[in-house]
Amino acid sequence: MKRSEFTHTLTELLKPDAIRDFAPNGLQVEGAENIRKIVTGVTASQALVDTAVELQADTILVHHGYFWKGEAQVITGMKKRRIATLLANDINLYGYHLPLDIHPELGNNAQLAKLLDIEVLGGLEAGPSSVPVHGRLKNPMSAEVFAEKITTVLNRKPLINAVRNKPIETIAWCTGGGQGYIDLAASQGIDAYLTGEASEQTIHSSNEQGIDFFAAGHHATERYGIKALGEYLAEQYGFDVTFIDIDNPV
Q: Which residues make Cβ contacts (< 8 Å) with residue 84, sequence separation at least 6?
């Protein structure tokens, strides 16, 4: 497939213009014109780029790409080495951040819900492009049992702050660094909140507002959207797609 057609395909699927973001979504570094072999991963780290070179991929597709708002604009050091490797090997880099989080089928939130047996009921925020979502556990359970389920499914033991001493029925979640939405979840009377990371104030919010809290890892909660996207592209268009999981304890 030509690069222009591939870009159009992803734009139609993920609709990046529907949500404001912190980095450009879509093609971030231009490489080969013809796209055949794709490597997917959570973050376009040097390790992922080097693996793509080893696999002779012409395209990398990630959730966390480059050129974030607020970062230094100069291309030096780590950024220079990453981009130089892409350019030297004629590899396209595509990044999709919030559009991949919120996609109703392939997105990080949707995929995490599927893995943890959560029924998605809708967005936690008003409007069609809510980043956090809410739903119900298909089988209500205690916070401790739910933490065990997270450990088993994600292969990652979560940070847990259980305060209710009741089974969890309703839950809100946002993969990655979505801990700030706990207050919105609490204001809507939801039993528990799940995300990737925690901040110091998050535990106070959990304690004082009576909402169970789980932080299951930024990387661990965001493996599955980009993996699902790659599988979709392989199935629908016949691309050779390889998902590379560069482990990250955060």
A: none
219 is in an annotated binding site: no
Task: For the chain, give every residue range classified as CATH 3.40.1390.30.
Answer: 3-96, 103-219
The Cα 173–Cα 181 span in angstroms is 8
Contact between 212 and 164 under an 8 Å Cβ cutoff? The reply is yes
Superfamily holding 3-96: NIF3 (NGG1p interacting factor 3)-like (3.40.1390.30)
User: What value does the mean pLDDT take over residues 70-98?
Assistant: 97
Q: Is 134 annotated as a binding residue?
A: no
Please list, in sequence order, all residues whose beta carbon lies within 8 angstroms of the beta carbon of residue 198, skipping any fewer than 6 positions away: 159, 179, 213, 215
Q: Is 58 labelled as part of a ligand binding site?
A: no
Q: What does the pLDDT look like over 141-200, one tens digit per residue?
A: 999 999 999 999 999 999 999 999 999 999 999 999 999 999 999 999 999 999 999 999
| Nearest-angstrom CA–CA distance, 110 and 107 | 5
The reply, when asked if residue 101 is annotated as ligand binding, is yes
Q: Are 239 and 37 in contact (CB under 8 A)?
A: yes
- The CATH T-level fold of domain 103-219 is 3.40.1390
Strands (E) across the chain are located at: 26-29, 37-43, 59-64, 92-95, 118-123, 133-141, 159-161, 168-174, 192-195, 212-215, 240-243
Residue 8 among known ligand-binding residues? no
